[in-house]
Amino acid sequence: MKPWILGLTGGIGSGKSAAAQHFSDLGVHVVDADQAARWVVEPGRLALRKIAEHFGKEILLTDGRLDRAALRQRVFQDENERRWLEKLLHPLIRQEIVANLEQASSPYAILVSPLLVETDQHRLVQRILVVDVPEALQLQRTMQRDQADRKQIEAIIKAQASREERLRHADDVLNNDRSEEWLKHEVERLHAFYLTLRGGQVS
Question: Which residues are ATP-binding (predicted)?
Fold first, then answer.
């Protein structure tokens, strides 16, 4: 029987990756859209060539890999450039995700994606779990983690779906405003529940 797919999403700094790691530790097959996004722009792949043609060679590091910081700066300053990049990358990322999900052998698999509800990636899943935290906590955690400035993080939060929008799509919500121990406990509780589901739905 094919595993059903759970979409796991949340804003930057919400703790999606930590939650996904706990699910993975429980034996669930996890596919990370961010990782897929990294694979499609590896040296030698078509996407990287097109990005370099479009933005110029200064978007590459000396070893030929993509300079993510430089690219991020360009696309967050210009809406049209961001749209161009998304149009190029989204179909490629989707192919990568689908191929990886097909390798799953656990009862259900997880697609972790910060852009689950903004892109058509939500069509790949049968159920959506949103990891939710207040925006002030998102900012604080991300600034600590990335050593990035507040303005850049606020721009990223603005570019992602709003908290309300995400929660509107949610079948399940995991409030991650407490400790790491609490998060682990909540993941275990949800995992036990998900194992009882067929096709991601309550029968």
Answer: 13-18
Binding site annotation covers 14? Answer: yes
Q: What CA–CA distances, in Å, run from 176 to 14, 64, 68, 92, 172?
A: 7, 38, 28, 31, 13
For 4-194, CATH number out of 3.40.50.11260, 3.40.50.300, 1.20.140.10, 3.40.50.720 equals 3.40.50.300
Query: Does 44 carry a binding-site annotation?
Result: no
* 17 assigned ligand-binding residue: yes
Q: What is the pLDDT of residue 98?
A: 95
Are the beta carbons of 175 and 166 closer than 8 angstroms?
Answer: no
The answer to whether 179 is a known ligand-binding residue is: no
Q: What is the mean pLDDT of residues 64-70?
A: 94
